[in-house]
Design brief:
The chain is mainly alpha-helical. Helices cover 85% and strands 0% of the residues. The chain is built from 8 helices and no strands.
Length: 191
């Protein structure tokens, strides 16, 4: 769920900077509009794949893949001056968004036994991401203007958000990979 929140927060930062990215690469507006939709196409591809194949259930790899693809896709889109790298970044980011959305919803429904509040919290995290990402980017942009560091301002704003997302997303991964660790901690606390 932390990756869901973080990926949507970062996605709405990308929505604001994509026109500038394609302008910097001298891509015509007509083509830039189509190319920026690659993220959405890859989300649909991820949804379709996860719906058709259930082999990902209760596996760690979607979490790991998302933890790698969200920041990698973001960095490729925002920082490179190569159109192919930007497009690869969009593919990575779009797949990661699809993974985080589908997995977070699936596991919320499993854990909460398909309760209404599971889906409500899921959509609420997306909504908070809609607001948190642009606010973080705006803070970074304003700080960059004061410090004259240019395009690095987006990293200054989004970096802490991404760091929090990764730290909290790592916790269930560690619990999954080392199930005995939680048991030992609980028994130590009882002693």
């Amino acid at each position: 769920r932390w990756l869901l929140f973080g990926s949507y927060a970062i996605y709405f930062v990308l929505a604001a900077v994509m026109p500038k990215v394609f302008d910097r690469l001298d891509v015509a507006v007509r083509h830039a509009t189509m190319l920026s939709a690659i993220i959405e196409v890859m989300r649909v591809v991820a949804f379709f794949g996860m719906q058709r194949w259930s082999g990902w259930h209760f596996k760690a790899w979607p979490l790991v893949a998302s933890m790698i693809c969200v920041p990698a896709g973001f960095v490729l889109i925002v920082s490179t001056d190569d159109l192919s790298a930007v497009l690869i970044g969009e593919v990575l980011f779009g797949v990661a968004m699809g993974l985080t959305y589908y997995c977070a919803l699936y596991y919320a429904m499993v854990v909460k036994n398909a309760a209404v509040d599971a889906g409500g919290l899921h959509e609420g995290l997306i909504g908070i991401g809609f607001v948190a990402g642009p606010i973080a980017a705006l803070i970074g942009h304003e700080a960059a203007a004061v410090e004259s560091i240019g395009k690095w301002g987006v990293y200054l704003g989004v970096g802490p958000l991404m760091l929090v997302m990764m730290i909290f997303a790592t916790r269930p991964l560690i619990a999954y990979l080392f199930p005995n660790l939680r048991t030992r901690d609980a028994s130590a606390a009882e002693d």
